[in-house]
From TrEMBL:
Gene3D superfamilies named in the record: Phosphorylase Kinase, domain 1, Transferase(Phosphotransferase) domain 1
One function term, GO molecular function aspect: protein serine/threonine kinase activity
Alphabetical list of Pfam families matching this protein: Pkinase
Protein name, per record: Protein kinase domain-containing protein
Transmembrane segments: 272-293
Domain Protein kinase, chain residue ranges per copy: 1-247
SMART domains named in the record: S_TKc
Keywords: ATP-binding, Kinase, Membrane, Nucleotide-binding, Transferase, Transmembrane, Transmembrane helix
This protein's record includes keyword Transmembrane: yes
Domain of life of the source: Eukaryota
Organism per entry: Hemiselmis andersenii (Cryptophyte alga)
Keyword Nucleotide-binding: yes
Length: 320
């Protein structure tokens, strides 16, 4: 806890040592000062005491991401991903890329909302200084690094979109697509660079979710984690928007806009209205059929009555 004036607050303190870590620490202080979003742990203060630099940030009391997702429906989990994507979009709008989004940097707070932590290796998009994370000095987490990060290419918003897609796979599968290679760094790097694991993301069946909706969500996660940055969603906002379309049962951009797919999705989204309309049409058709049958039966009875009448009249005249 830290006393400030007449009040106290509980904070999370980050401390640093010398060397490159101190440089990264100073960078984090500058980055966090720009961010104010309910999905990001707030920055409070920073300074140096007894030769040691410190940053005071909001203390988030909550559960790790996977624990917080236990028992949640697919819709609730997608809602969490949308909130995270919007928090990341907030950072991107301020020219900040997180670069280390992973389950360990997300907590689910007491209100059930996801909170993004640790901008320790975040980079300003307009920063022209030498990279702090070049080979041999990188603190990033290999399993959640984007292919371009491993290739040493310039890093942009696409690497955070990639990490958000991996988070989605973890949230629904309980593990990352690279779980089988995580114990061997070289095999893990090869799998990440090839992109075959993310291209084959498969979500477990859920009785509450139709197969077509499951396939749509798989397509969203695969697009977000495409090996080439240009093939991913262009922004975290676009990723969130496609997830929102999924929630609303609308066609998702990750599946393309083929007429047959769009028609199937629209029919599924409005299935109750379609069913109700079909029931009305069936009732109308049945009613019309009964009406025509009744009209035909009445006409037949009228013809029979007329014939009987003519027969009786003829019989009467014959006996007169």
């Amino acid at each position: 806890e830290r006393a400030v004036g007449d009040y106290e607050r509980q904070v999370a303190l980050k401390l640093t040592h010398a060397g490159g870590a101190a440089l990264r620490f100073g960078r984090e202080r500058d980055v966090m000062a720009q961010l104010a979003h309910p999905g990001i742990a707030r920055f409070y203060d920073a300074g140096v005491a007894d030769g040691q630099a410190w940053i005071a940030m909001e203390y988030v009391e909550g559960q790790p991401l996977l624990e917080g997702c236990r028992g949640l429906s697919w819709r609730q989990r997608v809602g969490l991903l949308i909130e995270l994507a919007l928090a990341v979009q907030h950072a991107h709008a301020r020219l900040v890329v997180h670069r280390d989004i992973k389950p360990g940097n997300v907590l689910i707070d007491a209100a059930g909302r996801p909170r993004l932590l640790d901008f320790g290796i975040a980079r300003l998009l307009d920063d022209r200084e030498v990279e702090l994370t070049r080979a041999g000095a990188s603190p990033l987490t290999l399993e959640f690094a984007a292919p371009e990060q491993l290739r040493g290419e310039p890093v942009g918003v696409a690497c955070d979109v990639y990490a958000l897609g991996l988070l989605g796979a973890v949230v629904f599968c309980g593990r990352s697509p690279f779980d089988a290679q995580r114990s061997q760094a070289q095999a893990l790097m090869t799998a990440i660079l090839q992109g075959t694991a993310t291209a084959a993301i498969r979500l477990p069946a859920d009785p509450a979710v139709s197969r077509s909706l499951r396939v749509d969500l798989e397509a969203i996660l695969r697009r977000a984690t495409a090996a080439e940055p240009a093939a991913r969603y262009p922004t975290a906002q676009a990723f969130a928007d496609d997830l929102q379309r999924w929630l609303e049962g609308r066609p998702v951009q990750a599946r393309g806009l083929a007429r047959s797919y769009v028609m199937r999705r629209l029919l599924h989204r409005h299935r109750w209205a379609v069913a109700a309309g079909g029931a009305v049409l069936l009732a109308l058709a049945t009613g019309l059929g009964l009406t025509l049958w009744q009209a035909g039966k009445t006409a037949e009875e009228a013809r029979a009555a007329k014939a009987t009448e003519r027969f009786l009249v003829a019989l009467f005249h014959a006996n007169s």
